[in-house]
Hints:
By secondary structure, this protein is of the alpha/beta class. It is built from 14 helices and 23 strands. Strands 6-5-2-8-12-9 form a 6-stranded mixed beta sheet, sandwiched between helices. Strands 17, 18, 19, 20 and 21 form a 5-stranded parallel beta sheet that branches. The longest helix is centred in the first third of the chain and has 17 residues, at 27-43. It is globular.
Amino acid sequence: MAPGNPNNAEKIAKLNSTLLTITDMSEMEKSAFVNLVTRYMSEGAQDLDWSKIKSPNDEIIVLYDSLTPTTEDPAEIKKILDKVAVLKLNGGLGTSMGFTGPRSLIEVRNGLTFLDFTVVQVAALNSKYGCNVPLLLMNSINTHDDTQKALEKYSKSNINIHTFNQSQYPLLGVEDFSPLPSKGQTAKYEWYVSGYPPGHGDVFPGLINSGLLDTLLGQGREYVFVANADNLGAVVDLNILKHLVENECEYCMEVTPKTLADGKGGTLISYEEKLQLMEIAQVPGERVNEFKSMEKFNIFNTNNLWVNLKGIKRLAEADAFKMEIIPIFKEVEGGKALQLEMAAGAAIRSDLYTLAGGFVVQNQARTNPFNPFIELGPDFKMVSNFLSRFKSIPSIIELDSLNVIGDVWFGSGIILKGNVMISASVKFEIPDGVVLADKTLNIETLSEAELAKSDLKWIPFTWKLFMSLRTTAAYL
């Protein structure tokens, strides 16, 4: 849709008329959606001039190690924590991993889900410092009911939990901009149902429309910490909060150096002397590989955001929330559809991390400061398949990289070290207690003689891999 097209006014009028027939949206949602579509028609999506994209300068990035440590005085820490609320983006389903409910309800460790860990972390802060940090969950129509049921067990905990739903926006037909619900499409295709519809930029209108923004301000809160519900590393960092309060910062995004596993994640760029977030959906097809590389775009957006509540209020009252629109084109039954999003800004379950006071921390036994790069093939994509393929999660304290392709099954007590690659064209079982250190195994081409040259014993027909007793004993 070209900006300034004379047919735009006619299409917006038709959109308004059609929305009257849709009962699943509130009047506030309909109004906001029409404004979003109108902006897209008049402005279009931002067309980035690739030659003008630069990396942010050092003045923009504040190194974590340069922050002044927080005082050890519990009373002072309580005073800082009384200024913050934690908000988790909980609108995503686990369908891409074969899980039917909210992604936050996937079991992570020892029977605890992502949501359980979040509640435990916030409750631990409240208990330790005698504060009352609230937890806010932004759900979607897809996750609301299951989340409410899961929260029932925390009704008597020392934490105030508030939930609200993000906006429910329909997909649009590309040709005529008519909402799919008005065309008799099935529920699967009517609404934004993947990720965080309509983009995690909806968190700010959601806070305002739910009344929670005014509630938090009335409690004396100054900042909201926003993070994805399935990010266990997203915790309230006292040093960051102290820095924001003392320097009166209104917006902060936590970023890290990009790794091989972060190719598709958003990054910070400097564009026409302005700092902005660039998502992969904004990248031209011929530039995607360059975007994924770690040379030009070496910053990874963790999607952990710290935002000043008064700043949100000020921008809302001035109608100044003009976050960039990201158009997502989808193939649906009957043709193409358009999804308009806005942007506000898992490691394998193993001994790599331990639990301390409700928080996930890296195991001190690991000497490498960087996490291992782990890539598992399609056979591991679904949660049920992932769980069934591991009798127990291997030890990866000394692992640098792991790449698994094919129908591979892991026994219990397995240790992985260095760089390990396993490729199998048939069902391949790794039995209990095996140690794989800097091994490349191609089960389709590796012969019995070649296996014998390594410290591995091959038993044909059963397709099982064994370490020799001598080698195994060396690691006991």
